[in-house]
Amino acid sequence: MLSNKLQSKPMLSEDEGYMLRCLEIAKNGLGTTAPNPMVGAVIVYNNKIIGEGFTSPYGGSHAEVNAINSVTDKALLKKATIYVTLEPCSHHGKTPPCADLIAKHGIPRVVIGLMDPHTKVAGKGIAKLKNAGSEVVTGVLEAQCQAHHRRFLTFQEKKRPYIILKWAQTADGFIAPTKDERVEIPEPYWITNAYSRQLVHKWRSEEQSILVGTNTVLEDNPKLDVRLFTGKNPIRIILDRKLKITTDYHMLDGSIPTLILTETVNKQLQKDAIEYGVISFNIDLAKQICGKLHQKNITSVFVEGGSKTLQTFIDSGLWDEARVFTGSTYFNNGVSAPKFKGKINETKSIGGDTLNVYTND
């Protein structure tokens, strides 16, 4: 019975198998390549991988360049196939066009997972490769490549960052205690365990920015860094309509690039790492935030709170994922968790906490 089930599973083709490897190594760029996409590339000759690479941190080499550079015998490239998760670029940016490099080395076959929607590419890379004499195959593991490149695709197609909401709630549905139950020193009031908190820091390292509202800063005085994990600190985005946050809070310490979205700018508070952006808080707040972050070339944002800020994105329909922890604690009273509807994609237990991951379908 078991063997019949195994035999019924569709087998991957050779091209799909190598594209799967591209997707695996592409994940190594998570959290470092933005605003560039995290691409994976594999070069195959005579059914053997002779080179592979993924996108370097922003400003560095693209995946195709790293893959080609990793090939010891460059003469084999004229008989090889290169697999890439996303269409090779055809324009000059911080690096030369990858399509030109592939053509220069005479790689005869190029297998692409997904066409690049960027207006500077969008089929131009494929056209360059075909004009150079390469056979080009597209759409291999396209759905998986779309899921992998969801941040980049959302930014290019919807003109906004990919939005992940995150909060922790008690077993009775509260995300914070009442104000009179808080201690005098503004520090976080933990609902989840240490394992869940470390996972959140890992998530922070994977996104380009992190966003919270004024009350979260005033009540918790968070650092919004990745001190519990190894990785790059995200850009801090703070909603501070009336500039209530003072310099004795971590958000204004200048240790991490920080963008304050406000109605007015106080030039006396500006530091090298702190930037201010003016928006209106009266209408379409979530839409305005997305517009401002798109202008800043920010492709993903991790929204951590508080309840009002989270609900603003939910009510606007401007969110892609929601990652919700439920702890074993009971508050009996307090700030209610956000109300939303989404498709649950994953449920797991983390040391007694329950994590549910939803998508906005």
How does this structure look, described?
This protein has 361 residues and is α/β, with parallel strands linked by helices. The protein contains 11 helices and 16 strands. Strands 11-10-9-8-12-6-13-16-15 form a 9-stranded mixed beta sheet, sandwiched between helices. A 5-stranded mixed beta sheet has the order 2-1-3-4-5, with helices on both faces. Strands 7-14 form a two-stranded antiparallel ribbon. Helix 9 (214-220) links the parallel strand 8 and strand 9. Helix 4 packs parallel to helix 5. The two termini are 35 Å apart.
Write the layout of secondary structure elements.
Layout: H1 2-8, H2 14-26, E1 40-45, E2 48-54, H3 63-69, E3 81-84, H4 98-104, E4 109-112, H5 124-131, E5 135-138, H6 142-148, H7 150-158, E6 162-169, E7 174-176, H8 194-206, E8 209-212, H9 214-220, E9 235-239, E10 258-262, E11 274-278, H10 285-295, E12 300-305, H11 307-316, E13 321-326, E14 335-336, E15 343-350, E16 353-359
Parallel strand pairs: 3-4, 4-5, 6-12, 6-13, 8-9, 8-12, 9-10, 10-11
Antiparallel strand pairs: 1-2, 1-3, 7-14, 13-16, 15-16
Helix pairs in contact: 4-5
Which terms summarize this structure?
nine-stranded mixed sheet, 27% helix, five-stranded mixed sheet, disordered N terminus, elongated
Shape: elongated
How much helix is in the residues?
A: 25-40%
| Alpha plus pi helix count | 11
End-to-end separation: 35 Å
Let me know the average pLDDT. Answer: 92
- Are there runs of 5+ residues with pLDDT below 50, and where? 1-7
Radius of gyration: 23 Å
What oligomeric state is this? single chain
Counted beta strands: 16
Largest sheet: 9 strands, mixed
Strand fraction: 15-25%
Strand order of the largest sheet: 11-10-9-8-12-6-13-16-15
Provide the structure class: alpha/beta
How are helices and strands ordered from N to C? HHEEHEHEHEHHEEHEHEEEHEHEEEE
